[in-house]
Amino acid sequence: MPTVNPTRMELTKNKKRLTTATRGHKLLKDKQDEMARQFMIYIRRDRQLRVEIESLLGKAMGKMSLAEAEMGRTSLEEAMMISAASAPPVCAIKNIMSVRVPEITRREGDSVNGGLSYGFAFSSDKLDSAVLAMNELMPKLYELASVEKICAMLADEMERTRRRVNALEYIMIPEMRTIIKYISMKLEDNERANTIRLMKIKDQMSSD
Amino acid sequence: MDNKVAAIGSHSSVVLFRAAGIHTVSAETVKEAEKAVADLVKLGYGIIFLTENYASRLEDELKRYRASAYPVILAVPEKSGPTGYGMRTINANMEKAIGTNIFDKE
């Protein structure tokens, strides 16, 4: 049973807490709904990109190993030494439902010469196609990186929100309700006891 | 914001990333990969591509980067093909967020 003083002050305090808790609960529920909606968008994109990249990257890697077989590891390394230093992506932070998530965008027009920066005399054409495939793949890889991180962060946040909603719904709010009920019953009881006492006294006084 | 990009994995798996102008670190063992991740994060790399075989074995170490926006550590399939780890991660996130996996299980 609740261990509170059955006083009027406790009663008003708890009533206030209850209204705050109910409002908070409603807000958190709304947050949960909106987050689920956003999450679905991102997780769909995540899945789609993952499937795409798994097949494309496999193909590009296959081409690369063909090139390596044709050219030998050393000359491949040599060609890679002056690799196309493509412009780094722009890393920013954006806010989704007050979760700070990464946003990675690629600068436009960064590849010179189609991204091939080595001499063509001693390199295999397999290398060219591998590098070109990779350059095409990079924006997707960056997007997948950010989308997957967003999904992970949103999933964590959603789990936290769910816990909060459940704590409010099944523990905090019922607890406050019982406290309020308990106090108001006690107060009514006292009120009645008081009335009875007064009546008794009045009876005694009139019989005297 | 740091926008340096790196890739970690066995030599044959990351050589392709070098072709795209990304800093690569070859790691032939899990220990090496773990050290490489820690070093690169310390150096302020914002995006790290890590091959799936290492990512799956370093799951616990990578958890601590989960809560902040950067670094973004992405598991990529290696040369021998995807292991299904990426898809498993997606499904795990799904289950965590919604409570159940609502995509059709293949």
The CATH class of chain B, by name, is: Alpha Beta
Principal-axis shape of chain B equals globular
What's the helix count of chain B? 5
H-E order of chain B: EHEHEHHEH
Q: Radius of gyration of chain B in whole Å, from Cα?
A: 14 Å
The first-to-last residue Cα distance of chain A is 44 Å
- With strands numbered from the N-terminus, the spatial order across the biggest sheet of chain B is 2-1-3-4
Task: Give a written overview of the molecule.
The complex is a heterodimer of chains A (208) and B (106). By secondary structure, chain A is mainly alpha-helical. Chain A has one domain (14-202): Helix Hairpins (Orthogonal Bundle), CATH 1.10.287. Chain A is built from three helices and two strands; from the N terminus they run ααββα. In chain A, a hairpin with a 2-residue loop joins strand 1 (90-96) and strand 2. The radius of gyration of chain A is 34 Å and the shape is rod-shaped. The relative contact order of chain A is 0.16. The mean pLDDT of chain A is 84. Chain B has one domain: Rossmann fold (3-Layer(aba) Sandwich). With 106 residues, chain B is of the alpha/beta class. Helices cover 43% and strands 21% of the residues of chain B. Chain B has a four-stranded parallel beta sheet with strand order 2-1-3-4, sandwiched between helices. Chain B is globular.
Keywords summarizing the entry:
heterodimer; A: 208 residues; Helix Hairpins; 2 strands; B: 106 residues; alpha/beta; Rossmann fold; 21% strand
Walk me through the topology.
The complex is a heterodimer of chains A (208) and B (106).
Chain A: H1 8-71, H2 73-81, E1 90-96, E2 99-105, H3 125-207
Antiparallel strand pairs in A: 1-2
Helix pairs in contact in A: 1-2, 1-3
Chain B: E1 4-9, H1 11-19, E2 23-26, H2 30-42, E3 45-51, H3 52-57, H4 59-62, E4 72-76, H5 85-98
Parallel strand pairs in B: 1-2, 1-3, 3-4
Summarize the structure.
By secondary structure, chain A is mostly helical.
